[in-house]
Each structure stands twice: as structure tokens, then as C-alpha cells.
Write a structure and sequence with these properties.
single chain, alpha/beta, 10-stranded mixed β-sheet, 7-stranded mixed barrel, 24% helix
Length: 361
């Protein structure tokens, strides 16, 4: 049997041995798990996973490789990947490189051979916490010392947001959308382009005056990593422009909208991550299967009096999954209607945003 060459150690001393793939580097992050059965490329290239190490609960990862058309960002910032079984011989006519090659190119470590069921139960029962992926020769005591000394940065949105505005145009465009980039997924932009929107992507610290100059038909607030309370620039921006343009927020955008209106957010024990979360649409009574990726949630107890009305709820834990303010032509959802490779139950939300802009024309 091949000898283990890597291991992970959690801050409470739990230790798991395995085999390294991807980049041969040490990394300290917050450990989380994702229950998606497919879509590992979209996971590792999602900016919302900055400073997080992801456990994939689906046991086989890497078997269809990496393709050029499916990235969610051009520069991945995930902290690491933990899998049960890694496959380095992909079977897919579209693949251009292996997952390990992609991780190695971007200095992201991976570990395979881990009992991911046991590890996921640990995260579910004890909550997310700090983890280190390190060489097998590192002692548990050394690893725990490093974990105690490391503080996960809070300025994560500034790390992943674009540094200057950029454009994604489409043929025969009908609308101009300004997207505030807090770690935006490329498939959100694809969905807007597909519906006739030219998209101007701007940094998270763009001022209200700069957005007014761009003369948008609507404003989009993106997903992104970290605690929404830390993104004070965007919260202040929302306060200044709410009611002036139709506005749509996803994930972190949903949380920042709620904070701007006076609600509060809190951190979940282990978060929601995966493509199989049932959400009840309170306006239609229909259940949507959704894709999610977040550690924080909007506190329902503080919605009253804000002007926001809850529109969606998570069936598993009753957390708020959507809010709306019709007076200000604004709505947001906690989950990802643009999810790729799926599910697609909630793509109607992009059409709702389009119709709001159409009504303003």
C-alpha cells in the first residue's frame, strides 16, 4: 500500500491522513462541505470559497476533468479541496486539463483518500472550524500551533473583487446593467448577457456617483466570500441608490441588501453548500431545488419594520432565502439561480429582473 504523504488537522485536534494532489503547498482555511454530485470545477473556481477548504461529499471527483468554458472566475482563490477518491484519468471529450493540473497551476492543494463521510459528520456536528493541509511529517502539535496563530483575513471581498471596471457586451442589447463585483460568478454575467443585457462590472468600492454616471437600467449585487457586515462600502452604496434603479442581489448581495435596510445577519453552524437544497417560494407555494454556497443568513426576527418582505424560505432549517421591497423595485435571494451545472428551477429570477427594468423603460 502506498504511504500517506499529506494530512489535514482541525483546530480541535482531529487528524485525517491521505495523499496529495494539486499544488504541494501548505494551507490554512475554514473547513466546509459541499453536497453537490457534479460541478467540482464550478466549486473550485467560485470566488465565494476564498479562505475555505471544501470537502466534497460525492465520493468520486476529477473523472470528467476541467473544461475551458465552465470556469466561474479566471483566477481561483479556494483554499483547498478534500475528496474521498480522486480520478486523474478523465473521460470527457471537452476536457483540456486534469483537476490536479488546474489546482497545481493555481497553487491550490488537494488531498484524497480521506474518509469524507466521517469528516462531513464532524463538520455537521461540531460546526465549521479552522483546518490545515500539511505534509505527513508535520506533527499534530505543530499543526495545532500553526492553526492557533493564524487568523483568517476579513478583507476577503477586496481580495476577489475586480480592480477596475470591465465590460461584457452582447448583440442587440436592450438593457445596461451595472454589476457590483464582490466575487461575481461568470455564469451570472452569462445569464444577463443571454437576456439582452450589456453588463458593466465594477469594483466593490465603486461610489454611488460613479454608478449614476454609468446610467444603468438596473443594478446587480453579486455573491462573494466572507462576513457581509465587513463589506461596509457596498452596504452604504445600497443605502444611497435604493429606489433609484431596479436592483437584484444574489447570496452575499442578498445579505448586504438586508443589512442596508436595517436587518441583521448571523453565522450558520456549518452553512449551506450544494445543489440540492429545497426552498419554498412563499409567493407561489412552489418548492424550488436550489444551489447554495454561504455561511451567513438573514435573521428573520429583524426583518419587521425594514420595508423588506420575506419571499422564500429554506425547508430544511427555515432560514430566509429571499426578500423583496416592491416600493424600491428591489429583490434578492440567498441561493444561486444561475447555478451551473444545475439545478435550473430558479432561473426565472433573472427574467423578473429583466421585467423590472422593462417596466422602467
Amino acid at each position: 500500500m502506498k504511504e500517506f504523504d499529506k494530512k489535514i488537522v482541525l483546530e480541535d485536534g482531529e487528524e485525517y491522513l491521505g495523499y496529495g494532489f494539486g499544488a504541494n503547498v501548505e494551507s490554512i482555511c475554514e473547513i466546509v462541505f459541499n453536497t453537490s454530485m457534479v460541478g467540482y470545477q464550478e466549486v473550485v473556481s467560485d470566488p465565494s470559497y476564498t479562505y475555505q477548504m471544501v470537502v466534497m461529499t460525492y465520493p468520486l471527483v476529477g473523472n470528467y476533468g476541467i473544461t475551458d468554458d465552465d470556469y466561474e472566475t479566471n483566477k481561483p482563490t479556494i483554499g483547498g479541496l478534500i475528496v474521498r477518491e480522486y480520478n486523474d484519468i478523465p473521460s470527457n471529450f471537452r476536457y483540456t486539463k486534469t483537476l490536479s493540473e488546474y489546482l497545481e497551476e493555481n497553487d491550490i492543494p488537494g488531498i484524497t483518500g480521506i474518509d469524507t463521510r466521517k469528516l462531513t459528520r464532524s463538520i455537521r456536528n461540531k460546526g465549521s472550524r479552522k483546518v490545515i493541509i500539511t505534509d505527513i511529517k508535520t506533527s499534530r502539535e505543530q499543526a495545532i500551533k500553526k492553526l492557533k496563530e493564524f487568523n483568517i483575513p476579513k478583507d476577503v471581498v477586496s481580495k476577489v473583487s475586480c480592480k477596475k471596471k470591465w465590460y461584457s457586451r452582447t448583440a442587440n442589447a436592450k438593457y445596461n446593467v451595472v454589476a457590483v463585483d464582490c466575487g461575481i460568478k461568470l455564469n451570472i454575467i452569462r445569464n444577463l448577457n443571454k437576456r439582452g443585457c450589456n453588463v458593466t462590472v465594477v469594483p466593490y468600492n465603486t461610489t454611488a456617483e460613479e454608478i449614476v454616471k454609468l446610467k444603468p437600467d438596473g443594478v446587480f449585487l453579486s455573491n462573494g466570500p466572507g462576513n457581509p457586515e465587513d463589506v461596509t462600502e457596498v452596504i452604504e452604496l445600497i443605502k444611497q441608490i435604493k429606489g433609484k434603479y431596479p436592483m437584484f442581489g444574489i447570496c452575499l448581495g442578498h445579505q448586504m441588501i438586508s443589512l442596508a435596510y436595517g436587518a441583521k445577519t448571523y453565522k450558520l453552524k456549518f452553512g449551506h453548500r450544494g445543489g440540492n437544497h429545497p426552498v419554498l417560494n412563499l409567493q407561489t407555494d412552489k418548492i424550488e431545488i436550489t444551489s447554495q454556497n454561504h455561511s451567513y443568513a438573514v435573521d428573520e426576527n429583524y426583518l419587521q419594520g425594514t420595508g423588506l418582505k420575506a419571499t422564500h424560505k429554506n425547508i430544511l432549517d427555515n432560514t430566509i432565502e429571499g426578500v423583496e421591497c416592491k416600493k424600491d423595485k428591489l429583490f434578492s435571494v440567498q441561493y444561486h439561480p444561475e447555478s451551473a451545472p444545475g439545478p435550473q428551477d430558479s432561473s426565472y429570477l433573472f427574467d423578473k429582473f429583466i421585467n423590472m427594468m422593462k417596466g422602467e423603460k
